[in-house]
């Protein structure tokens, strides 16, 4: 098994994602980190964290990639993210909705292994504004 390297940048990026209630874009992370590391290092760290099963990737309705923390079940071999993601049309936030799991009914001989659902609408914060 490959050794897990923990750098200062990796630790800070993982803390940002773990402490956030919404999924973060690369740009969000870069702004919050300031001059800690460059954009290429952020991309490499995000890829490493995803491969380690610490974060997962969500592509929002605009095609922007967001990153959110994984539940404790994920490993570097397999991610378990068969849940809904909510994309707010107002503030563009992406939120994992863990307790809403859609039922899938596929035609005979099709086997679902993973899926990604994006629901778009207005989040509670924007609806109350």
UniProtKB/TrEMBL annotation:
Signal peptide: none annotated. The lineage of its organism: Bacteria, Pseudomonadati, Bacteroidota, Flavobacteriia, Flavobacteriales. It comes from the Bacteria. It holds the Pfam family FUR. InterPro entries: FUR, WH-like_DNA-bd_sf, WH_DNA-bd_sf. This is Fur family ferric uptake transcriptional regulator. Coiled coil: none annotated.
């Amino acid at each position: 098994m490959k050794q897990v390297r923990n750098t200062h940048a990796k630790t800070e990026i993982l803390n940002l994602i773990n402490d956030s209630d919404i999924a973060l874009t690369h740009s969000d992370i870069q702004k919050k980190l300031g001059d800690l590391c460059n954009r290429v290092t952020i991309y490499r760290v995000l890829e490493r964290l995803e491969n380690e099963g610490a974060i997962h990737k969500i592509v929002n309705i605009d095609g922007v990639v967001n990153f959110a923390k994984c539940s404790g079940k994920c490993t570097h071999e397999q991610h378990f993210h068969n849940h809904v993601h909510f994309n707010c049309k107002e503030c563009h936030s992406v939120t994992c909705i863990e307790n809403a799991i859609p039922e899938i009914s596929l035609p005979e001989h099709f086997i679902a292994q993973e899926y990604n659902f994006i629901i778009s609408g207005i989040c509670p914060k924007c609806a109350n504004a």
